[in-house]
Write a structure and sequence with these properties.
6-stranded antiparallel β-sheet; binds fe (ii) ion; 3-stranded antiparallel β-sheet; alpha+beta; binds 2-oxoglutaric acid; 10 helices
Length: 280
């Protein structure tokens, strides 16, 4: 197992992320999730009387979803809340190969799955409110600072869809303090945190925007600086993410592995030293 992941581990330690091509089996692991998404979109189009194509996965996740949210954007929120409850998605999140991979990347670790830290992003063109600005995962998730983000697409990601962007090697920054800023557009929770001296820090690293296909996996260190790309395509970008952390991490134990925003907490009550400026 260690052998299988040795190239991955090398780039993960050096760059703060690694890409595993075809890590998941399309037929047995990815396809059932995509089909589950199709059924949810079809059910909501039927419920609300939206005339939209949903017979194939491509239709449903593309034009079907587009017409649903064009009629009422809030129905997109219903899709977002529903799709993370697809059993096949849970099976992917809790695949024992994820634990194996985590244990290779975090020696002597005891892996956990961050509750509330899993979901399926649906990034629509022209919507800035839900785009994640440059951030580290740790303040947004807590649990343990040696956690790892798992990121895997549900559709082929081309440049126009705005692939996730990473600052290569930026995990070397350590934990970066943050300030609150809603971007003037009501960003909330983790999306309203901005890095201390962001530009200066980002200038130190090359940026990567990996193009991936369903079945591929990106693993990202909890300290790697990353942001959402900008979707300038004519359709939604669908991608899955979840987070694993380490029960054996000393800071994790100190925090009793508590979560952040998605767990109804705010990181600044737990680690106040990380916040450098009061909210406006
Ligand atoms: O995919 C994105 O747009 C952002 C992803 C992200 O921040 C994450 O997976 O932690
Ligand atoms: Fe993130």
């Amino acid at each position: 197992m260690t052998q299988e992941f040795s190239a991955t581990a090398e780039s993960f330690f050096r760059d703060g992320y690694a890409i595993l091509r075809g890590f998941y089996d399309h037929e047995t692991q990815i396809k059932p999730i995509r089909e589950g998404v199709r059924r949810i979109i079809a059910a909501l189009c039927q419920k609300y009387g939206v005339d939209a194509p949903t017979n194939t996965v491509e239709e449903a996740m593309g034009e079907g979803y587009r017409r649903l949210i064009a009629t009422n954007r809030a129905w997109g929120g219903e899709v977002y809340d529903a799709v993370k409850q697809i059993p096949a998605f849970f099976r992917l999140v809790s695949d024992s190969r994820n634990d194996d991979l985590f244990k290779v990347l975090r020696a002597n670790s005891d892996p956990g799955i961050a509750a509330g830290g899993y979901g399926i992003r649906i990034d629509n063109p022209g919507e800035d409110k839900f785009r994640a600005p440059w951030h580290q995962e740790f303040p947004a998730q807590l649990r343990s600072e040696d956690g790892i983000v798992f990121w895997s697409p549900l559709i082929p990601i081309c440049p126009e869809l705005g692939p996730v962007e990473l600052a290569v090697g930026s995990h070397a920054e350590g934990i970066v303090p943050v300030r609150k800023d809603d971007g003037g557009i009501g960003k909330a929770g983790a999306y309203a945190l901005r890095l201390d001296r962001e530009e200066e820090r980002l200038a130190r690293y090359k940026h990567a925007a990996p193009l991936t296909n369903p079945g591929d996996l990106i693993v990202m260190d909890f300290l790697t600086l990353h942001q959402s790309g900008q979707n300038v395509a004519d359709r939604a970008r669908w991608s899955m993410q979840w987070r694993m952390f380490n029960f054996a991490n000393p800071l994790g134990i100190r925090l009793s592995w508590c979560g952040s925003f998605a767990a109804g907490q705010s990181f600044e009550t737990i680690l106040p030293e990380l916040l450098i400026e009061a909210s406006k």
